[in-house]
Design goal:
2 domains; mainly alpha; 0% strand
Length: 185
């Protein structure tokens, strides 16, 4: 009768394929001896322990590589953050070097146009309605005259002019920001 522990198949042992980057540290397991019984079991245990040792080595190498990648990623993140901060600082310095009139003329023109439109279309018409009522207790009689818009005289040229100024200013500001954005990339 044959011993169940005997390995009497004549097939060659399976060859383990390894990646090219692992070949230099790979140690193949020892070949199977043609010894029977308890010697074979002991040799198999030794081979398993050796394979377990190589597996643990691989795990440690993998862990070290992952730590190195993590450190490299953190360094790249820090470099990107520093680069972004430098770009923001450069933009602030560039903007800080401008005279206040140069940097704030666009918003000033917008606010001025809003005030002109409000006063011409809302403020002064309300004032002309309530002015006769306000002066009546003082004994002054003032006939009501309807408000005629000052900005619509001459074909509304002031609205056309402000529209052109603010439109071109907004367009040029957008172009400036686009160019500044391209420099930072």
């Amino acid at each position: 009768m044959a011993n169940p522990n005997d390995d009497d198949d004549d097939e060659p042992p399976l060859v383990r394929r390894v990646a090219d980057d692992e070949r230099d540290d790979y140690v193949p397991p020892p070949p199977k001896p043609l010894v029977s019984g308890s010697d074979t079991a002991e040799l198999r245990r030794l081979a398993l322990e050796e394979m377990r040792f190589h597996l643990e080595e691989r795990k440690e190498l993998h862990k070290m590589e992952m730590e190195m990648r993590k450190v490299e990623q953190e360094e790249r993140d820090k470099e990107r953050e520093q680069s972004r901060k430098d770009k923001d600082q450069d933009a602030k310095e560039e903007k800080g070097n401008e005279h206040w009139a140069k940097s704030f003329w666009r918003p000033a023109m917008g606010w001025l146009y809003m005030i002109i439109c409000f006063m011409d279309f809302v403020g002064f018409p309300i004032l002309t309605i309530f002015l006769p009522i306000i002066f009546k207790p003082f004994g002054l009689t003032m006939p009501y005259t309807a408000w005629q818009s000052l900005t619509l005289a001459n074909g509304g040229l002031i609205h056309i002019a402000f529209g052109a100024i603010l439109g071109v200013a907004a367009f040029s500001r957008g172009q400036d920001k686009a160019v500044l954005g391209q420099k930072t990339v």
